Structures are given as C-alpha cells and as structure tokens.
Amino acid sequence: MSSDMPAASDDANVPAEVPTNDAANTEAPTTRAKAATKTKKPPKQTGQKVKKQVEPADEAELSPKPVVEPVPSNRSFWTRIERPFVFGFLLTLGGLAAVLLGLALSNLSTVIIYIALALFAALGLDPAIRFLERRGLSRGWGVVIVLVSLIVALGLIIWAIVPVVVAQIANFVKDVPKMVADFQTSDLYATLRDQFGDQFQTLVGDVQKFLSDPGNIATIGGGALQVGASIANGLSGAVIVLVLIIYFVATLPSMKLAMLRLVPARDRKDADIISTQITDSVGGYVMGMVTLAFINSIIVLILYTALNLPFPLLLAVVAFLITLIPLVGSLLFWVIGTGIALFGDNIIFALIFAVVYLIYMQVESYVLTPKVMNRAISIPGSLVVIGALVGGTLLGLLGALVAVPVTASILIIIKKVWIPRQDARI
To answer: What is the pLDDT of residue 352?
Structure first.
C-alpha cells in the first residue's frame, strides 16, 4: 500500500493537461492576420512599385477610357461637323425633296382647290343634315334629302338663270359702245370734263374706240377658243366638286373617326372636342356667308328691277359671288353696281341705288352679320381683315373665302391647346 502512494504522489506532482480548444487556437492567428491585413497601411513606395491585387470585376471599371477633348465654344457650326460629306449629301437630298414637293403641289393646285371647295361645302351642308337627325331621321336619309335638294336647286338655277345671264352678257358686250356714247352726253360727263379737261375726254375716246372693235372684246376674254376652254374646264370642275361633296357629306363622320385614331389615346377626347368645334364653326360660317350673299343678291335684283337699271339678273348673280368675300365683298360690289347703274338712262336712279345699297351695307354690318355669323364664329375684326388679306394674296379669291374659317380654327387650337399648356407651367 505504501509502494502505491509515491506513485500517486508522482502523478500528482506532474501538471495535469489542461484541455485546450484546438480550433480556437488555430483560428486565432488567422483572425489576427486578417485584422492585421485590414488595419495595416500599405507601405510607402521606396522605389519598388507595389502591385495591387485587382478583382476581375474591377478590371472593367479600371480599364482606360477614351479621352474626349472638349470642343471650344468659339468654333462655328460648320467646323463642328464631323462628317461634312455626309452632311452635305443629306442637305442636298433635303433640298431636292423640297423642290420636288413644291413642283408637285404646284401641279396639283387645281385638285387641291377642288378638294378644299368640296370640303367646305360638305361642312356647310352638315348642319342641315344634323338638323334632320335631331328631327328623328337617320343620317343616311338626311344626306339623301339634303343632296337631292342641293341638286334640284342647282338644276333650277341653271335652267332659269343661266340662259338669261348669258343673253344679258351678250347684250352688255353689244351695248357697251352705245352706253359710252350715252355717257358722253350726260351731265356727269360734262362735269368731269370741266374738272379734268381734255385728258378725260381723250381717255373716254380711247375707251370707246377700244370697245367698239369686236376683236378687242374677244382679246379681253382670251379669244373664242380660250373662252370655250374656260367654260369646259369650269363645267368639268363643277361636276368634280359636286361628286366630292357627295362623298364628303356621306363619309364625314367616318373621316373624323379615322383622323382621331391618328391621335394618341390619352388625347383623343380633347381632340374630338376641338375637331367638333372647328367643324361646327366652319360649317356655320359657310352657311352664314351663303345666307348673307343670297340676301345681297335679292336686294340687288329688287333695286335694279324697280329702278329699271340694266342687266338686273346678271348683277344679282355677280352680287352673290362677290359678296361671298368677307368684309370687302359688299363694298366691292357697291362700287361695281353703282358704276354699271351710271350707264343707265337716268343718273338719278343710279344715285338712288348707291344710297339705298349703302344703307343696306350698314344694316348688314351691324344687324345681319352679328346675328348670322357670331353664332357660328367669333373672332376680332382685325384678324378677319389680316386673314382675308393674307389668304387673298396667297390663293386669290379662294384664299379670301377660306381665310376667316381657317383663322377661327387656328384661334380655337390656340385657346384649347397652347394656352392651357402655358397656364400649366410654373
């Protein structure tokens, strides 16, 4: 038993093995190494370049990029063009395209005029069709009734008025020398001769000599062949316009829907409202101008017939055509009608016509026009004058006729589109 005790004491003197965490011991140096790596600052360059370990993903970011030199601001437009040959080629193509487009429009000017006349006439007939629709008729029957009424009215006008107008034109051409001779024996001629002297007498003599030659009358009309060709072109153009009117009136709603489909869906409602206002204003304007021109022609026919002035029916037709021109039409016919009336048998009757028609012009300007036209279209008078001048300069009589509705359409677009966008800006 004693021999066993020293052995136990020897074992007791030997230090017992302390259990250690091998994983902790092995990970500690690694963790310390990583911490040292993170906190360790890169060594200063002492002649040797230290290469940085770059991840593959960073290589694209650190790859050299092309250096773009700033363009000096004082360089002109032409010096900034990188490919002058290509630019010049495209510029030449654009110029050629513009020239070809201009030539095409010039050659198609007659067709464009026919289309414009037919479209305006269709818009003018559309209010009558919608009136019949509100009375319970379908649009198809309304179109048929309006078109048949239009064709019958045109037929009656051609049958009743055209032969008389042609006869009066022939009589007018034949009676021009006699009218000039009668004018020379009037008191007005004596007054003008005393006022202006021999120059006025010489002028009247030259006019009488020119008009006494039938060849000169033919020259004024461009010759018999030219007159015949003009009549044939006018008749064919009238037929084309009538056919286009029929198609436009019948397909006006579908044409409107097709145009609206070209507009983005978010703007179609506003576009529909604007297009409806434009078509209503144009249609109302056309109907109003035709109504005022018809009243003008009736007044002229009554005055010329009551005062026994020459060529009453011819002057009534001329009044209807001329007074379609906005603003200046009535004034222009007043000058023409008074001038023709002066060649009559009694100068007093000519002065009566001038005074009565001048009074009617005031009634038309301040009573009839506001009631008839302001319901359909309302634009400042200055814009009407400017639009008529611009339209007449560009397209002649047709431009003067369409100037007012085009100006009104532009104003509607400005009020409904441009002004709200400007108001939305801060």
So the answer is: 92
Phi, psi of 63, rounded to the nearest 5 degrees? -70, 145
* 3-state per-residue secondary structure call for the chain: CCCHHHHHHHHHHCCCCCCCCHHHHHHHHHHHHHHHHHHCCCCCCCCCCCCCCCCHHHHHHHCCCCCCCCCCCCCCCHHHCCCHHHHHHHHHHHHHHHHHHHHHHHHCHHHHHHHHHHHHHHHHHHHHHHHHHHCCCCHHHHHHHHHHHHHHHHHHHHHHCHHHHHHHHHHHHHHHHHHHHHHHCCHHHHHHHHHHCHHHHHHHHHHHHHHHCHHHHHHHCCHHHHHHHHHHHHHHHHHHHHHHHHHHHHHHHHHHHHHHCCCCHHHHHHHHHHHHHHHHHHHHHHHHHHHHHHHHHHHHHHHHHHCCCCCHHHHHHHHHHHCCCCCHHHHHHHHHHHHHHCCCCCHHHHHHHHHHHHHHHHHHHHHHHHHHHCCCCCCCHHHHHHHHHHHHHHHHHHHHHHHHHHHHHHHHHHHHHHHHHHHHCC
How much is the pTM?
0.62
Q: Are 282 and 296 in contact (CB under 8 A)?
A: no
Higher pLDDT, 7 or 334: 334
Residue scoring higher pLDDT (35 or 169): 169
- Among 63-72, 190-199, 276-285, 383-392, the range scoring the smallest mean pLDDT is 63-72
Average pLDDT on 90-117 reads 86
- How high is the pLDDT of residue 215? 58
Phi, psi (5° rounding) for residue 64?
-65, 135
Q: Give the residue-averaged pLDDT of 141-163.
A: 83
Measured from the Cβ of residue 391, the count of other Cβ atoms closer than 10 Å reads 22
CB 189 within 8 A of CB 183: yes
Given this model, what pLDDT does residue 229 score? Answer: 66
Predicted confidence band at 12 (pLDDT cuts at 50, 70, 90)?
very low
Q: Where are the domains of the chain?
A: 84-160+225-262, 176-220, 266-419
